[in-house]
Design goal:
Layout: H1 2-6, H2 16-35, H3 49-66, H4 72-109, H5 113-118
Helix pairs in contact: 3-4
């Protein structure tokens, strides 16, 4: 890396941005050579069919209110659906976090540090 950095010649026309860009490309290319390219893994989320359905129901109720028919019954219906959606989301997210922590704990106990640190 030092060899590549030493080969950079400074011209009077080069400004700081060009110099920084050159350094950036050299550092990135060296990092790819040494470390390789890491792929991002989608681990999934806590959102499933039930939580998505509750969100859709709540959104439909909200659209009715927005259309100008903001009667008390529609507002109460929306509030009820929103409350149900939030409880479902809290429950699903809590279950997902607990499951993820249990998986991480198992990996830690098996001394599989790489998988533990990657979050698999």
């Amino acid at each position: 890396m030092e060899g590549k950095l030493n080969h950079i010649t400074l011209n009077e026309q080069d400004n700081g941005e060009k110099l920084c860009e050159r350094h950036k490309t050299i550092v990135n290319s060296m990092a790819e050579e040494v470390l390789g390219i890491m792929k991002l893994v989608n681990k999934g989320t806590w959102v499933d069919g039930e939580s998505q359905a509750s969100t859709d129901d709540k959104n439909k109720a909200y659209r009715k209110i927005q259309q100008g028919y903001g009667t008390r019954s529609l507002i109460e219906e929306y509030k009820d659906k929103r409350r149900k959606e939030k409880t479902i989301h809290r429950r699903k997210k809590k279950e997902w976090i607990i499951m993820e922590l249990e998986n991480m704990e198992l990996l830690w106990k098996k001394h599989e540090c790489t998988k533990f640190l990657q979050g698999n």
